[in-house]
Amino acid sequence: MNRPKRHAGEVSRDVSAAPVEAASWGLVRPYGDDTDDGKVQLSFTLPVPSNARAEAAARDLARQMGMAEPMVVHHKAMGPAFTFFIVYGSVDHVVDLDTLQVEERPYPILNHREVDRRVRQALGRRAVVVGASLGTDAHTVGLDAILSVKGWAGDKGLESYGAFRVINMRSQVDPAALVERAVMEEADAVLVSQVVTQRDAHIHHLRAFAAEIERRGMRGRFLMIAGGPRFDPSMAQELGYDRIFGKGTTPSEVASYLAWVLGERGDRR
Amino acid sequence: MTSGERQIDRIMFGEPASGRTSTLGAVKKLELDEGVAAEARELARQVCRPVEELIERHTTVAIERAVLRMCGLDGAVGQGVDARPFANLVADTVRRQVGLDRGVAIPVFDLMIRDGLSITEVARRVVSGEARFRWPDDPSEAREAAEEAARDADSRILGRRRERDELTRRLGDPEKPWIYLIVATGNIHEDIPQAQAAARAGTDIVAVIRSTGQSLLDFVPQGATTEGYAGTYATGENFRLMRAALDEVGEEVGRYVRLTNYASGLCMPEIAALAALERLDMMLNDCMYGIIFRDINMKRTFIDQRFSRMIHARAGIIINTGEDNYLTTADAIDEAHTVVASQLINERFGLDAGLEPWQLGLGHAFEIDPDVPDQWLLELAHAQLVRELFPEAPLKYMPPTKHMTGNVFQGYLLDGMFHLTGVLTQQEILLIGMMTEGIHTPWLADRDLAVENAKYMVNTAKHVADEWWPPKDGRIRERAMRVLEETVGLLRRVEEDGMFEAIHAAEFADTSRRPDGGHGLDGVIETAEDYFNPFLELWDRGRRAQP
Asked: How many Å from the N-terminal Cα to the C-terminal Cα in chain A?
């Protein structure tokens, strides 16, 4: 059976990994310590006192989820009204990898020199990137990881590329202020970072920015890119963005994307 | 002898931890160069002095509103985050009609005396547009009335402090390190059962994180609130509800459960006042955090922090400083000394506002990068260095956030390593990390597992600090000395350039702020010769803040 070299939905953190192609992926089941044994682990809380009935309920839930012989290996009372469980078991389910719709990255990961070369080729100048955390979100960790020279996990940020001029507006930026700055700086790309997800604040802020762009009739003036640990990259179109980066995104990925897409689009100034 | 120098003298030389219940007692292990440590403290004093001269010559709208609140003004037009609190309406109206350069107290008490009004009735007149404030020809009567109101407020604040002392005696004060856990649902009525569950699981301190936008609000929302982003608004009513809930669960679990909130942002002194009146026990309160992380104007922040700390000093509240956040933006290895420099500055400002060393819960954290060889040793060195530099401070230790990923198994291990480091180096307040913090706001089970993790290390390594000594010429001591020397180097630069210019030059947390930039500068007011604030007089500008 063909084994995938990486998980279907995973955003690669290996900067050298190009999209993996294969003729056929085949069928797959979870692997514990034996091929096709279907072993999985699961933990959850039930809002019931810890007793024999609670344990039976946990087993029953696991069975309904498709685990054939669930073993409740741990249960612990959390106060008088809740119980925490860890369950192991085997699932019968099989995944046909060939039937999955997976978005593969359409661009290769490039090194610094190649990013710089392609951007200059496309624009004949440096690309201007404006980044901000919008609205109530005060977190700049993700934004700084992508933009600052320091970067993330040894992968240096966009500031370290000769091809980018970076303006980091940091946190709690108003959507209108971001638009104005993007216009003033003649931005080629705007990066919106969102970390806080409570009550879907991250989605709310993304929509607010997109609406502001729409209101001013400025769609297409610059690339709209969003990033954050809880974003689903497949939502880009629905939210009106050119691209959304999810958890684990490296600066190299963003830089490589910009080099690719600017090459495709050409200069919009 | 100053209190700063007194601290150094109290370090125990090579003795095991003392039996004092109130502190773990720092043990000197690193044989730090005392001359370098003393130089760092002296530099911090010199760095703070010009800023304190500026503080002495100014007040802010938030300080004047805190005066009104402590004098009994509560209430608002509207509710929650849409409220226009009476404190704001009155202070703004006085500012417009009379100016605030002589303080809000005389014009307000003058109107109360003239028309026989309560302070709330004054606010109602402001709302209806009928209030006419003035600066009386002879302010002595208004002044006496304000002084009496301040004495009343002061005895209420001291009453709350005594209440805490009695409860800790009767219910029992938990052994250190205290386990500190965050609740953040956005809804006070959801926070309460979660906080109570956390207390039952073994939490000693519950921190209710504020809604992310609150630091930039120039007013305190009103009443019980149920909507917030990544946290719950700090309001007087939310404080009261949570305090009652923790007192209730404290009776059940047989120990006093402490409550923490945030006296930071644009309303630092007002929130300190509310905390003092509602018996909160610890408050996040940093002299620079708002400047760096929230882009609040530096003058506003420095002036506000002073008065807020006087209130905390009087109320027996432990402050928590924010250095644990620096290394989330700056590099942990290269910038570790900025944490120590900021702690020394926070210490100086704190002591000068009347806080006692036991009230200085200096915050710190390092970031253990799983991929860097020996980084745990650097962490150990840093934690021990801070322990020895601030032997009486109830240090607050926060686990790594930068390296928390979706790998919850590694996250659980990272948190465990952090707790072990905390016990090894006698940190007194352990902020408990969540293995899922890179994923979502904590679930019930996440909190329970986190407390279990902390308890495991705290119990099984209980006396490890007495048994652990880093070798004389080892890496740990060398690293600690280097960080201390770099701290002196940084403080020397800050002393030469001045604090404002140093912040502008991004010396702290890699972030640059302009002296006249940021939020809240329009709320800073230069005081007149006859400025009057009854609390400043009563507490002698912090020199008589302790009962």
From this structure: 51
